[in-house]
C-alpha cells in the first residue's frame, strides 16, 4: 500500500459542548465504530480509532468498498449495523470475535454498513490541509454513485435543521450532532470538532463499587435499576471523581460494605449462567480481556442521581456522571419506568433511503 496518507492514522476528534454552535457544518453523530478506510487498488484496510485494523471483522464491507470506492483513496467514517430501522451497537460488538467462521456467519446475518463523512486523500493527493467544506464537496463527488452498504453522511449548514436532527434522529439510534468549522483542515488526533449529545438524568441504586487502580479509594460506583419482575439489574457505572472525592466516598459508603456478595442481589455475578439470565457486574468480554472486574458489594440502600446520554438496550451506553445523592428516594422506586424513551425514527430516512 502506497498512499499519500498512510495507516495508522488517528482520526480527528470532537470536544463536548452543551449547545449546537452557529456557523458550522453539521452532521449527525453516529453510534458505531469509528474507522478510517485506506484503499490502494486491490488492497484495503479498515483502521480503528486506536490504529488497530478492523478489516478481518467486516469481510462484507471489504467486498463492498472494493466494488464502489475510488481505486486510491482514504476516507473517515463510521461502521454501523442497523436492525429494524435503528442502529444496533450490541450487534456491532458481536462482530469482534476471534473465530473467522463466526465473523463470516454474522457478516451474512447482520451485515454492516459504512457511513463516510470525510475524504482525506484521493489518487495521489492528500487532502489533510484542504478546508472541511472543500473536503466535503470532494467526498460527495467521489461517492456520487455509491449505494448500500456505503453511504455519505447527510450534512447541513442550517442551524435550525441541525437542531431538528438533534431532536429527531435519536429515535434511529444516533446520539447527537457533530459541528465542524467549514474552513477546518483535517487534524489527526486533535479535538477540534464539537459534539453535542443528549443528557438525561436517572435515579439509580448504588449497589457496589470498584477500587481505583491507584489504591483503596473508589474507582467507580456500580449502578442498578429494578425491572418489572423486581430484580435489580446492573445498568452501568459512574466514575471520573476527583481523588479527594474518591477518598470521601470510600468513607461515606463504608457502613454499607458487605463482607461478601452473599445475600446481595448480584451475589451470582461470577456464575456464567447467571450472567446470561440477567444484567450483573463483572461480565467478561473481548473488550475487557484480563482486566480485573472484581467489585465490592454494598447493601443496596442508597440512591444517587446520575446524568446519562442514552441507553443501549437495558444499560447506559456510556459511563454515567454522578450528580447528587437522593436521600429522599427509596431504592425500590428506582425502576426502568423513569427512563425517557426517544420517539422512533427510521434510520432509512436519515440515510436518504426513503
TrEMBL record:
<feature type="domain" description="DNA ligase ATP-dependent C-terminal">
    <location>
        <begin position="216"/>
        <end position="329"/>
    </location>
</feature>
<dbReference type="GO" id="GO:0006310">
    <property type="term" value="P:DNA recombination"/>
</dbReference>
<dbReference type="InterPro" id="IPR044119">
    <property type="entry name" value="Adenylation_LigC-like"/>
</dbReference>
<dbReference type="GO" id="GO:0005524">
    <property type="term" value="F:ATP binding"/>
</dbReference>
<dbReference type="InterPro" id="IPR044117">
    <property type="entry name" value="OBF_LigC-like"/>
</dbReference>
<dbReference type="Pfam" id="PF04679">
    <property type="entry name" value="DNA_ligase_A_C"/>
</dbReference>
<keyword id="KW-0436">Ligase</keyword>
<dbReference type="Pfam" id="PF01068">
    <property type="entry name" value="DNA_ligase_A_M"/>
</dbReference>
<comment type="similarity">
    <text>Belongs to the ATP-dependent DNA ligase family.</text>
</comment>
<dbReference type="GO" id="GO:0003910">
    <property type="term" value="F:DNA ligase (ATP) activity"/>
</dbReference>
<dbReference type="InterPro" id="IPR012340">
    <property type="entry name" value="NA-bd_OB-fold"/>
</dbReference>
<dbReference type="GO" id="GO:0006281">
    <property type="term" value="P:DNA repair"/>
</dbReference>
<dbReference type="InterPro" id="IPR050191">
    <property type="entry name" value="ATP-dep_DNA_ligase"/>
</dbReference>
<protein>
    <recommendedName>
        <fullName>DNA ligase (ATP)</fullName>
        <ecNumber>6.5.1.1</ecNumber>
    </recommendedName>
</protein>
<dbReference type="InterPro" id="IPR012309">
    <property type="entry name" value="DNA_ligase_ATP-dep_C"/>
</dbReference>
<dbReference type="InterPro" id="IPR016059">
    <property type="entry name" value="DNA_ligase_ATP-dep_CS"/>
</dbReference>
<dbReference type="InterPro" id="IPR012310">
    <property type="entry name" value="DNA_ligase_ATP-dep_cent"/>
</dbReference>
<feature type="domain" description="ATP-dependent DNA ligase family profile">
    <location>
        <begin position="11"/>
        <end position="197"/>
    </location>
</feature>
Amino acid at each position: 500500500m502506497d498512499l499519500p496518507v498512510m495507516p495508522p492514522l488517528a482520526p480527528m476528534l470532537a470536544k463536548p459542548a452543551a449547545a449546537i454552535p452557529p456557523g458550522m457544518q453539521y452532521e449527525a453523530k453516529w453510534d458505531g465504530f469509528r474507522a478510517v478506510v485506506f484503499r490502494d487498488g486491490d488492497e484495503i484496510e479498515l483502521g480503528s480509532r486506536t490504529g488497530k485494523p478492523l478489516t478481518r471483522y467486516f469481510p462484507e464491507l471489504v467486498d463492498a468498498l472494493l466494488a464502489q470506492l475510488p481505486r486510491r483513496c482514504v476516507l473517515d467514517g463510521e461502521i454501523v449495523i442497523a436492525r429494524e430501522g435503528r442502529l444496533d451497537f450490541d450487534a456491532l460488538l458481536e462482530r469482534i470475535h476471534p473465530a473467522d467462521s463466526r465473523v463470516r456467519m454474522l457478516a451474512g446475518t447482520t451485515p454492516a454498513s459504512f457511513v463516510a463523512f470525510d475524504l482525506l486523500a484521493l489518487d495521489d493527493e492528500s487532502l489533510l490541509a484542504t478546508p472541511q467544506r472543500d473536503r466535503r464537496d470532494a467526498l460527495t463527488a467521489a461517492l456520487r454513485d455509491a449505494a448500500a452498504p456505503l453511504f455519505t453522511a447527510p450534512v447541513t449548514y442550517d442551524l435550525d435543521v441541525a437542531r431538528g436532527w438533534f431532536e429527531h434522529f435519536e429515535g434511529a439510534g444516533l446520539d447527537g450532532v457533530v459541528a465542524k468549522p467549514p474552513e477546518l483542515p483535517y487534524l489527526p488526533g486533535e479535538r477540534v470538532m464539537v459534539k453535542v449529545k443528549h443528557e438525561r438524568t436517572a435515579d439509580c441504586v448504588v449497589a457496589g463499587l470498584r477500587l481505583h487502580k491507584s489504591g483503596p479509594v473508589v474507582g467507580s460506583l456500580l449502578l442498578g435499576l429494578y425491572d418489572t419482575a423486581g430484580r435489580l439489574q446492573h445498568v452501568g457505572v459512574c466514575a471520573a471523581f476527583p481523588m479527594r472525592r474518591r477518598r470521601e466516598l470510600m468513607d461515606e459508603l463504608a457502613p454499607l460494605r458487605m463482607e461478601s456478595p452473599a445475600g446481595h442481589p448480584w451475589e451470582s455475578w461470577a456464575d456464567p449462567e447467571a450472567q446470561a439470565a440477567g444484567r450483573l457486574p463483572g461480565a467478561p468480554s473481548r473488550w475487557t480481556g484480563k482486566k480485573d472486574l472484581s467489585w465490592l458489594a454494598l447493601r443496596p440502600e442508597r440512591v444517587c442521581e446520575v446524568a446519562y446520554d442514552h441507553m443501549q438496550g437495558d444499560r447506559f451506553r456510556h459511563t454515567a456522571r454522578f450528580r447528587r445523592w437522593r436521600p429522599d428516594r427509596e431504592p425500590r422506586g428506582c425502576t426502568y419506568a423513569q427512563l425517557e424513551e426517544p420517539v422512533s425514527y427510521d434510520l432509512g430516512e436519515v440515510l436518504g433511503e426513503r
